[in-house]
Amino acid sequence: MRLKKDLGKKFLANGLKFLTAMQLCVVLTVVFSSCFEELKHQEEQCENRMIRGIPSTSILSKSDLDEIIRLFRANNLDYSKFYFDRFIISDLNENRNVRCHEYVNNLKVLNRGLIFNFSRNADFLFSTGAIIGKIDLDTIPSLAKDDIVEVFKGSLSEDMCIEYYWGIKEKERIIAGCFELEFGYYALDEGNNFFTKAWKILPDGKNSLFAYISDCTSEVLYYQHGFSHCFCRPHWLSDKTINNNFK
Known about the structure:
Number of strands: 9
Strand order of the largest sheet: 1-6-7-8-9
Shape: globular
Distance between the termini: 87 Å
CATH architecture of one domain: Roll
Low-confidence stretches: 15-19, 21-44, 238-243
Structural class: alpha+beta
Oligomer: single chain
Radius of gyration: 28 Å
Number of helices: 5
């Protein structure tokens, strides 16, 4: 009789273990299935976005843009070919500093910016950077967005600084994520004598991490990860990549 009870207890215990294992399998299956579906949904939702600014507009507030236009008009300055991205009133003397990018042939000059300085009384004081005015290139891209993304992903994969500062998981997330792209012109020299068509690309939410990629050759013209004290740059970076102001 006691033997039967012991066998019954053992059978019951084994049965509970079996059920527990089965339940765990079911839970894990549901969890992994849910995660897989979520990742799949994110991939389906992820679309690499094209950015295209419009001259005489701004990412700034309407009140800032209205003030910028007032300053330009008061000094008979043409603002129709500029895209404004920064407006600062100095704490020291209340001068107005306006940063913008020029559009030529209705395309943005990606790596050249200008700053216009106005007094507190709206008088034009000076500007930094040169107005380009004319570029003898067409406005038609040769490469597709996906081509640019693949080149950029290759650069990200080689960049050990991202791994060092943000970790391997974040690096993998960036590479698997979405990107913003902008097509325009790229100045190849300090004197603004030579230009090429190029793309600016950056991951969503990572403004300090970007590259300029040639539309003609798919070569990386410039790459920046934003880590000022990290020198483990990808091997293909050369001295020419420093030639960028007001990126």
